Every structure is written in structure tokens, then in C-alpha cells.
Amino acid sequence: MKLLPLLYLLCGSLTAQDIYFVDEPTLTPDGSEIVFSYNQDLWRIPTDGGMAVRITALEGNETNPSISPDGRYLAFSGNQYGNLDVYLMPLEGGEIRQLTFHEADDKVESWSWDNDRIYFTSGRENRMSTYTVPLAGGTPSRHFGENYFNTVHNVAEHPDGSVYFNESWESSLFVHRKRYRGPFNPDIKRYDAATDTYTKLTDWEGKDMLPVIDREGTIYFVSDRDNEEYNLYRLDGNGETERLVASDQSIFSPAVSADGSRLAYVKNYQLYTYDPASGQERKVPVTVSGFEGLAKQQDFKTAGNVTAFDVAHDGKKLAFVSRGELFVADEEGKFIRQLNTGPGRVREVKWLKDNRTLLFNQTVAGYLNWFTLPADGSGEMQQHTNENRNNRHVVINHDTTMAVYFSGRDELRMLDLSDFSSETILTDEFWAIQNTLPRWSPDDAYVAVNARRDFEMDILVYDVDDKTHQNLTETGVSEWGPYWSPDGKYLYFHSSRHQPGYPRGGGDANVYRLPLRRMREPFRAARFAEIFSEEETEKDSVTIIEPRGIMERIEQIGTAFGDQGSLAVVQDDEKQIVIYGSDQEGGKTQLFKTVLSPFEDPKTESIEAKGAGGADDLVTADGKHYLLGGGKILKLDLDKNKAEPIELDYTFRRSLRPEFEQMYYETWANLEENFYDAEFHGVDFAEVREHYAGFLPYVSTRGDLRRLINDMLGELNTSHFGFYSSGDEEETTFGSKTFDLGIAFRADAPYVVESVIPDGPADFYDINLRPGDRLVELDGQPIDPAQNREAYFTRPSVDAEVEATFERDGKPFLVRLHPVSYGQGRDLRYDAWVDENQRRVDEATDRNVAYVYMKNMGGGELDNFLNEMVSEGHNRDALILDLRYNTGGNVHNDVLQFLSQRPYLKWGYRGGEKTLQPNFIPDAKPIVLLINEQSLSDAEMTAEGFKQLGLGTTVGMPTYRWIIFTSGGGLVDGSSYRLPSWGCYTLEGQNLEKTGVEPDVTVDNTMLDRLHGRDPQLERAIEIVTSGAKR
């Protein structure tokens, strides 16, 4: 192992004072020194401040430091092998030992007071649980039982042997979300294993979390109970609380010295201490030596990374965008030049009529605005809009004199390309996300555009001269992506004609065309006469729209099988060629064309175009067609049904610092434009932007950026939020995978079988493993009982087969197994919990009540729900539908429609039994719906709908209050953020994000219930449903 002295020689060229983005402080027992994480390493500093010394330098990130109560050791988490493991080193320097090896992240939390065990949180068997690993090493032990939903974390051991902890996601995954009020709020809880006593010590409706305890048993924690910011509190033995620090800036990551003389925490990304004796808070001045890494330029490639493009009208030049930069090249991509557009992110580019000027949009303070620039780089860039709206999806007319584009959520604008003035031509519900391109008619007389009606897309047509518009479709489903035929006679679109796009996505869509006026089929006699005519036939290019009966003229184009969309139409003499993406062959989306010719049947063929899943970005210039696929510009040959890539191999340079700043503002701007609540939950979101922007100059790693943006978003007190980012600079050399054999081993004997997990790799009749069998060898390697079991189960990849030798009554026997990933092993444990619930219901009701559980509200779980309902649900007298711990999705309507079925008549064959219609009648039977504080998102929609429809009785606890439907946005480097854009309300107008759903019958399941295998909620549901009452 690596030897690391205490005084680590630094080679950096800079000295930074008053640093930011420190985290996770821990104190020496006497409170004289602090170890903290910063810039992916651990540092040590006197409590009074000064020059910090780096004490770790492993590959990857070291975090979560914790000093043992006797001051001899430092435990921490590090991800040098791709995931966080627990490491141990002497505090005064020496060998670093790896104590855990599992693929799941292991996050160090605290120590036992006897200095013998390290507490850590891990998601190896469920979403999260608390474990301890011995100081000497060995297999970790899970605490608080094997129940899948005991998610104890933030554990602090009391000197009396009890532990204090939290259980909520709001104190683990979403600590940075401020001001949450609801049933899944974190409270300070206590459990004493010696007496099997569980106590909930605080009962504030907000967030009480992160307990820490000194050697005298004094308990400190943070809470937002007084001013909606996290402040420091003390908790006495009677459950009374005392605020110690009253700050308008929140406190994170508290720690206390073993002797209780000092506390340390983070505020405004800096280190602070608190002296309990004097009541004084003090900022710790920290100086570090290091270097500025984010300003260093890095090489990036355009090859395979093109995100937008256009071709000049003369067909000789390309303009394209890669990683937010603008480039110009010749048609073959041999000569490429990068254009200087400044720090914003370029998204779209168009050539103007002179074949020398580029129109493009790029971000200014996060919002997209319009610019022009000479394509040869000879002149200055000109900005034409400067507003806090995203201006996007520009389409230039055929005459190259005007353009249309979307602005913000609700405007379609026209841009005059002579002076770049713009005017709003339509105000409607366009949304600022999920737009299709507006389209000019061939004669530039009309613009077709999608606008929202009841969430679905209708096709509106704007008359440029009259400045009026009409809705051509007016259905309750979506008609996406209107595209004019080049002869002006048709509008093409794709649609799932009988399935709305929301909430589930609309199902498979097909391509249709809408004849704009009533047209007769061509006459063969007329065509024959043209053979002998010397006059050239005049082609009608005027667009005429005949509204009468227009929706009755819709024609389907191409196959009815599969999902089609993203279309374009080109004209080849009399032929109309419709190009689109479809998964009709083998389920993989690829490019197809359907050729429509007079006097011939339509002909559909596939096009070889690697990476292209559609054609709505098709560009035609000088008679040639181009589109984008797989990050490459493809030249499309419709005669050969093939698209060849244009090689654009160019290296350019960027540094991450300005890129990170641009990403910050773009994320904020898109949340500002798309957040579902115009009042931003009562927060001044512009002020929030400015506050957190003040820390941008101090960001030194991608982890700092993640932390900063997520903290900014956390101010909204919203569900369904988050910023996600990873980069090559964070990659580690090695990775590891942990496999699962589907065997539960004893906690006190980690190689002895306790049970076989149902449906796992070991659950086969010819294996016959029994409790008490001991694993003694794995793939020929003898097992050392003192070694950590997961070290044997962790390898560079999961093997397809393993050979395990067990011993029973002193006799070895070989078992061959197909291991699964640890994630699949988690799922098996989840399924075992569901199976146990099924067993309890079957046993208590003599199999007369169906039990159906849904883990989430996704398509897979919907299929499982329907399978259960047409079998067990059909054949039994009542139903318990369990949505506890359900993590949401979008199938609420499907579930509720099925449950709402009730009988309306009978029918039968002569001599046969008369049976009911419909076939399935759940609404005619007693139903109980189980919900709890972890039922979230679409589970809450389902629960509210269930109550409104009067389908039965709801039992359990109020739901999470985590229900906003969400979309997302992508950033210049592939990072992403969530957009909580659609609020959900009761029929009376109550916001479910703020109210959740109250059960008809309130029953709690505590940690102690789960620990001992009790389920009062399920027992009450059985009692109610077997009473026969519908509600």
C-alpha cells in the first residue's frame, strides 16, 4: 500500500488564501486541529487557521474524513478505483489501508467510542443503510436489520451505546434542498440496541438532521426551524432544543471534537468553528498551496461532435457547431476555421443569402440571443437581440429575406434579415421546451407551427400577409412536426392518432399528410395527351388552404408498424420523397424514405445513414441534401439510399473555467424560463443567481460546480431537480465490479449461509444450499475467514460463472453459479420484501384478497400491474394495491382507468355461464390503496385520483409532496439538469407539491417495526379490505 507522510511536499505554483469549497470537517479529540476535504484531497490545519497541509493524494477524490475519538486514526472515503471505499490511515502519517471493497459507494460517517469500528453508509443492499467495519479490517456488518426500507444514515454513537440518526432522503440525497415541509422530513431519532428502544426526539415539520455527539453525550444538530436556514442547535436529554448559531446563511457538515470544546462546520463554502463555552462563532482563515487547473486549456475534437450545422446556398461552404464553438469549412471538410464568438454557447447557425454572413444564436447570461458574423472571420460580431428569453429554432424563408423563431415560452417572432428587426407574430402556448421547428410554405405565404392545446400539439398556420392564423387540426392528440410538401399541396406530420402524448408519450406515431385542398387523382388520359404536347406544363406553386373538411382528408404514409417521426419532404420532379426515422425494422430507429409518385404505389425503403434517427434537420443546398447523424454531417444520396459522413477532423482548445461559468448561467436561465411556478415558491430567484454566482471564481473542480449549482437549485425548495455532470478529468485508471451470488450470509459469521434469496443465482432445486453451509473456496482460491468477504466478490468485471466450494458437516461440495451484479442483487432483496407481503396477505385472507405492488409508475411496472390484475386480481374477491416507496413515473391514468372498470351488462352462450362486461371489474370489489411518506411523484397523482374517483380506502401515511412532472436540458459538455415544468393540482386547485395526499386511515410504520418484521400498515389494510366495505 501507499506510504504517505504527514507533511506532504507540494509542488503547486500558487498560494490561495481565504479558500472556498471546503467540506466535511472533522476535529482532533482536543479540538486543536481540523481535517477537511478540498480540491479532491484531505487537508489538515490548526483550528485557529493558517497554512493547510495536504495529507492525502490518492488518485480520484478523498472525502468524508473522520478522526477516531482517541485521535490515532483518520478514516475517509476515496474513489481511486471508481467508487467510494473506506480507507484508514494513522493521523500522524503512515500506511493507508483499504477497509471496504464493494462497488457501491461507502461514505464514512463516524466512529464507535471504543475506537474499534467505523460507521459508514452504503447502498450495497438497498438504497442506503448503515454499516460498520472493524478497525482491524474484515467483513462489514449491516445495522438496523435486513428490511429493505430501513435507510438509517447520519449515525452518531452516544457514549451510552445508543445511536442517533436520520432516515429521510431529505437528510441524505437532498440535504441541499432548503425549506422542505412534509411527512418525509428528517427528525433526530435514537435507537438503543441493548434495550431495543426507539425514540423520535424531534418533531419539527421541517428538517432536523446531521446529529453529532461529544464524549459527554452532548448532542448537536442542524435545523431550519427558526429562519428557514440551517442553523446549529443543541438537544438535551428531555428533547428540548436550543439554538446556538443564528445565521442567515446555512450550516452544513457539522462535527464536534471528542472533548466537546469545539464544533466545526461549513458555511458559504468556508470553514467555521463554534466554541460552546463562549458561544462564539469564528471563520477559520485557510491558506493552501496548489495550482489553477480550470484555466488550463484542453484539446477537443470536432470529429463526431457536431451538434448543429448549415450549408451555404452555393453548396461550397459548411458552418457547424461543436462544444458550443462555431466553425466554417469547405464542403468536403478539408479546410476548417474556428470563429471567435466569445464566452457564450453557440446552439444554431444559418447562412444568409450572400453566402458570406452567418446568423447564429448563443447564450448571453444564460439566454440565447441572435448574432451575425462574417463567415471568413474578417469582421466584427454583431448582436441583434439582448433579452432574458431563449431565442431559438430559427427557420429562414425560401427567399432568404425573412426568418421565424421562437422566443421564450409564448412567442413566435418574425426576423427581417435586412435590418435584423423582429416582431412577435403569434402569442400562444408554445412552451420553451420540446419544440418542433416552424416551417415556411414553399411560396413563403404561410408559416406552419405547433402550439399546445391541453398539452397536445395542434398545427397552426399563420398567414404572412393577412397576419391571421388558423388551427388546422384541433384534436385531443398531437400532430408533431408539420412539414410542407415542396409543391405546397400538402402538410406532412407524424401523430399517434388516438393516443395523447401526455402523460406517457403517445405510443407509436406514424407519418401522415394533410391535403390542403380537395384534389382529384391525376388522369391517365391527360398524361397521355402531354406526351404529344410541345407546351411545357405549368406547375402550380401557390399554396391554397381549403379548411372545409380538412381533417377528413388525412392520409397515412408508409408503414403502420413501428414508431415514425422527425420527417422531411423533398421533391424530385413529380415524386415526393418523405424521409423519416422509424423503428419498424428490428426495433432500432433508422432512416427510411417513402416515395410517392403519380400512377404508382408508394414505395418504402431504408436508408443507410449511420447515427441518423430522423430528418427534421435536413438541409438542401445546390441540389444536394445533408443531415446530422451521430455527431457527424452526412451527405445524403437518395438514389443510392445512402448517407456518407463528411470528415470534420479539427482540434480546438477550451478551458473549463469559462465553460463552467457559462453552464452555471444557462442552467439558471432555463430554470427561470421553465419552472412551473411563476413565483418560484416565494424565492427571489434572480437574487439567488447573484448570490451563488459570487462563488464561481472559487470553483476549482467539477465537484465544486456540481455542489454550487445544486445548492442554487436547492433554494427553490422543489422536487425533481438536480444538476448532473462528469468529465474526463474525473476518470480513474481502474474500476471494479462486485457480484452477488443471491445468498444472505450471517452477520456474525460472514462466510456462513443464513438463507438463499428467492429467484437469485443460488435458488435452484439442484443447488440445495442450506443455512449453516460455509463458503471455503471461490474459483480455486481458499477463503481467509478474517478477510473482507467483498474483496473476494469484487473483480474488474462480473464473471459469467463462478465455482464456489462450501462445507457442510466437515465435507466440501462444489456449487457452480451464474453471479449477478450487485444492482441486480439489490433488486432481488426488494422482490423478497414484496414476496413476504404477498405471503402475509395470502395467509391472512386465505388467498381471497389480491396483493399487487408497484415499485414505480413506469412502463415495466404497469405491465406487471396489468398481468397481476388479469390473473390474481381477477380471480380474488378484493384488492390491496401497494404504492408505498413508489418512486413515480407517468402511468397513473392507465392504472386508474383499469381500476375504474365496473360491470354494465352480462352476456353468455346458450347453456353456458353468463359473464360480465367488461371482463375485469375491479371497481366492483373492495380496494385498499397503501401509501406512505415515500410514495412520491406519479404515485401521488395515482393516490389523489384514486380518492377523487372514490375507488376505495387509502391507508398509511401522507405522501412525500414530491410531485412535479419534469423534463431536462443538456449543456455544452454533456452535463444535464432537470426542469420541473408541470405542476400537479387537485380539482379544487391545491398544489400537490405542497399538500401531498392524506390517507383516509393514518397508520405509521417505524424503524422499529421494520427492524422486527412488523407491518402495521399492511395489517390495517387487510382488516379493512376483508370487512367488505368499498370505502
Can you walk me through this structure?
This protein is 13% helix and 37% strand. It has a 5-stranded parallel beta sheet with strand order 70-71-74-75-78, with helices on both faces. A 4-stranded antiparallel beta sheet has the order 3-4-5-7, with no helix packed on it. A 4-stranded antiparallel beta sheet has the order 8-9-10-12, with no helix packed on it. A hairpin with a 6-residue loop joins strand 15 and strand 16 (141-142). Helix 2 (656-674) packs antiparallel against helix 3 (685-693), helix 2 (656-674) packs parallel to helix 4 and helix 9 runs parallel beside helix 10 (938-948). The longest helix has 24 residues, at 822-845.
Provide keyphrases for this structure.
1031 residues, mainly beta, Transcription Regulator spoIIAA, Pdz3 Domain, five-stranded parallel β-sheet, disordered N terminus, protease, serine-type peptidase activity, cytoplasm, hydrolase, Tricorn protease homolog
